């Protein structure tokens, strides 16, 4: 769902909640008036100033006013639940980066559903990272934090192994190694061990 649709639904549910609260206030006022009138009618009934039918009609009005207040409270609860769901949907529509940086690759599209794959690749604080493949034998010799030299065109720069894949491709018998690099100006990377 697009963020604009989620925001629109959130605003609509917020407006519905305000309307439901105003309705409750109105129903509570009507109940207060109906109960006050009922008390007057009960007093008048004792002195035979009104008929039994008029008293019963006012009792029915008071019961209806109580039911209207209960219905208004139920409406508020329902709209509040919708608003809470809209807020939850709004949070799900937000994509927050775990750190400052530059987006180097985008695989997410507005309006598409997501899966377990990365939506964006981020160069954190200007840091670059190389992903290379290493054989199963090479992976067994490597460990996180190990310093390495990386050749970028005609330049050599140092890097540090940040992550070793725990999965080996069954066909190529290789796994991925992520190396955090020092800042370099070109992203064409060849790795020399």
The description of the largest β-sheet is: 5 strands, antiparallel
The secondary structure category is: alpha+beta
Distance between the termini: 45 Å
The residue fraction in helices comes out at 40-55%
Radius of gyration: 34 Å
Overall spatial form: rod-shaped
Query: Beta-sheet strand percentage?
Result: 15-25%
Number of helical regions: 3
In the predicted model, the low-confidence regions spanning at least 5 consecutive residues are 186-193
Quick one: how many beta strands?
Answer: 7
What order do the SSEs take from the amino end to the carboxyl end, as H and E?
Answer: HHEEEHEEEE
Structure overview:
With 193 residues, the chain is of the alpha+beta class. The protein is built from 3 helices and 7 strands, in the order H-H-E-E-E-H-E-E-E-E. The protein has helices at residues 3-46, 52-93, 136-141; strands spanning 101-106, 120-124, 128-135, 147-152, 155-164, 174-181, 190-191. Strand 4 (147-152) and strand 5 form a beta hairpin. Residues 186-193 have low confidence and may be disordered.
